[in-house]
């Protein structure tokens, strides 16, 4: 009788690719999808794979009872269904056809981490609810994604061999290797339920911001330096060979050098400038506001998408306020490009620092004990934000387990100091030439605020006390003592609150 190691429910782009990846690595997989076409499509592709002996066997289940019957025990069932209430509907249906308390159900979607926490509680005692956030899109899922697992620790021992086999791999220098070669897998157990989805959410927040930074550089080069898309693509290609090496830089270089097959124009110029979003960046920004852990560059990236969607207002305002400012030909082209490269690097580093700071806050709050070096290692390959400098980030957290903020790591202090001038010049140019850089500028303001020992929050506290008697602490007495000044009377006196 056929015994599968794992079942996949939901055989859309991601579910199908994960299933094929598992088969590739010799695991027997059962597949089920409410849409029969998806199941038959996977069946066809799995049959082609099956011609190779080393591959796992595929079993196509026509219903959930067949699916359960095809699995070895404890059963491991991965869900690749849209985030939201559908996850629970599927789990409830599985329970109704006979799941046992030992069985493991893994949510591989982009679920909101609080939903995952709630689901683990809801299903406790009925099954082992586990989660694994997947990054890398279709190609990643098919040939090596980054996998962020969390939940029931006892479930991890069943899941781990499969996840580590199919994940992207890196060599000892943190460079991607063929997923069939020996290497360190980009798959790890990160903590209790919710932790993995939280880390993936922050990954996506960083993704939004990193994309925005690259787009700002492109916009400036195109609008202010009048460079063609192809030339910008070539510069990105060069940058991708240096400190800015990343998947997002690589694909941007490729996109910019691609022609539209319909018109022959640069492809990027025929794409409408209105950005969509599914919401994970928004979740990150909202979470940062709730926590009081600043991630302004991630929030700016979400706002930038919202502003891009206001196309008709932008069109009207561009006519009302045409830019009649300075002349870009006064700029020394190569110098400006070098400064821009420095600015991108600094802002990118700040974005990652904001993301890790968020995770530190949440980990402390939830008692997750997240290991930041492990997270950076998982992100070195397979995921969308994979970048050369994640190796440095993992080393920084490995060297100092108590590192409070990424910007305090020795290597990053030096690399920021040497690039600071370019970052400031670029931000100044963006204002002078009216080329919006909300990401690059907000990263600089975040950095400048953090490095300011004294901020004007003294005046702010005084204002709050003035109109609302909200009290203030003093610099010359212990901070836990608070005071109020009698602002309304003719004589201003301090009273202890
Ligand atoms: C990944 C991606 C993936 C998805 C984004 C797209 O890690 O593989 O992040 O999860 O492509 O969520 O997000 P938007 O549609 O919101 O840009």
UniProtKB/TrEMBL annotation:
Its EC number is 1.1.1.44. One of its GO terms (biological process) is D-gluconate metabolic process. Pathway: Carbohydrate degradation; pentose phosphate pathway; D-ribulose 5-phosphate from D-glucose 6-phosphate (oxidative stage): step 3/3. The active site is at residues 200, 207. InterPro entries: 6-PGluconate_DH-like_C_sf, 6PGD_dom2, 6PGDH_C, 6PGDH_Gnd/GntZ, 6PGDH_NADP-bd, 6PGdom_BS, NAD(P)-bd_dom_sf, Pgluconate_DH. The keyword Cytoplasm does not apply. It catalyses: 6-phospho-D-gluconate + NADP(+) = D-ribulose 5-phosphate + CO2 + NADPH. Keywords: Gluconate utilization, NADP, Oxidoreductase, Pentose shunt. One of its GO terms (molecular function) is NADP binding. Residues 196-488 form the 6-phosphogluconate dehydrogenase C-terminal domain. Pfam families: 6PGD, NAD_binding_2. Substrate binds at residues 110, 135-137, 203-204, 208, 278, 305, 464, 470. NCBIfam families: gnd (TIGR00873), PRK09287.1 (NF006765). Catalyzes the oxidative decarboxylation of 6-phosphogluconate to ribulose 5-phosphate and CO(2), with concomitant reduction of NADP to NADPH. Homodimer. Belongs to the 6-phosphogluconate dehydrogenase family. This is 6-phosphogluconate dehydrogenase, decarboxylating. It comes from Vibrio sinaloensis DSM 21326.
């Amino acid at each position: 009788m056929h015994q599968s190691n794992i079942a996949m429910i939901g055989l859309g782009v991601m579910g199908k690719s994960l299933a094929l990846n598992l088969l590739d690595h010799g695991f027997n997989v059962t597949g089920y999808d409410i849409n029969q076409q998806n199941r038959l499509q996977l069946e066809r592709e799995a049959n082609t794979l099956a011609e190779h002996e080393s591959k796992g066997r595929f079993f196509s289940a026509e219903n959930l009872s067949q699916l359960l019957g095809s699995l070895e025990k404890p059963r491991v069932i991965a869900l690749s269904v849209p985030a939201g209430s559908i996850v629970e509907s599927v789990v409830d249906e599985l329970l109704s056809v006979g799941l046992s308390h030992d069985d493991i159900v893994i949510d591989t979607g982009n679920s909101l981490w609080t939903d995952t926490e709630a689901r683990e509680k809801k299903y406790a005692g009925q099954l082992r609810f586990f989660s694994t956030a997947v990054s890398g899109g279709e190609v990643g899922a098919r040939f090596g994604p980054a996998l962020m697992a969390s939940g029931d620790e006892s479930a991890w021992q069943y899941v781990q061999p499969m996840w580590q086999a199919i994940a992207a791999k890196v060599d000892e220098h943190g460079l991607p290797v063929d997923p069939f070669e020996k290497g360190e897998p980009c798959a790890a157990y990160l903590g209790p339920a919710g932790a993995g989805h939280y880390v993936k959410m922050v990954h996506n927040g960083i993704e939004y911001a990193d994309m925005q930074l690259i787009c700002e550089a492109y916009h400036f080069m195109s609008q202010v330096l009048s460079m063609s898309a192809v030339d910008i693509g070539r510069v990105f290609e060069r940058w991708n060979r240096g400190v800015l090496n990343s998947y997002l830089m690589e694909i941007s270089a490729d996109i910019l050098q691609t022609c539209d097959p319909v018109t022959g124009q640069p492809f990027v110029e025929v794409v409408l400038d209105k950005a969509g979003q599914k919401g994970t960046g928004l979740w990150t920004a909202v979470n940062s506001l709730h926590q009081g852990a600043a991630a302004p560059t991630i929030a700016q990236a979400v706002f930038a998408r919202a502003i891009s969607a206001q196309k008709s207002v932008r069109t009207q305002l561009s006519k009302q306020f045409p830019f009649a400012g300075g002349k870009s030909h006064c700029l020394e082209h190569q110098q400006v490009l070098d400064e821009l490269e420095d600015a991108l690097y600094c802002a990118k580093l700040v974005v990652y620092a904001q993301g890790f700071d968020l995770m530190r806050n949440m980990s402390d709050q939830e008692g997750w004990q997240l290991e930041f070096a492990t997270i950076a290692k998982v992100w070195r390959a397979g995921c969308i934000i994979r970048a050369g400098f994640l190796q440095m980030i993992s080393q920084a957290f490995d060297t100092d387990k108590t590192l409070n903020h990424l910007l305090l790591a020795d290597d990053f202090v030096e690399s920021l100091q040497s690039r600071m001038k370019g970052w400031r010049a670029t931000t100044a140019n963006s204002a002078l030439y009216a080329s919006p850089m909300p990401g690059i500028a907000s990263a600089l303001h975040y950095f400048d605020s953090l490095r300011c020992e004294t901020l004007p929050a003294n005046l702010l506290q005084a204002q709050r006390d003035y109109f609302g008697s909200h009290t203030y602490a003093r610099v010359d007495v212990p901070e836990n003592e608070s005071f109020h000044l009698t602002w309304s009377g003719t004589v201003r006196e301090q009273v202890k609150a």
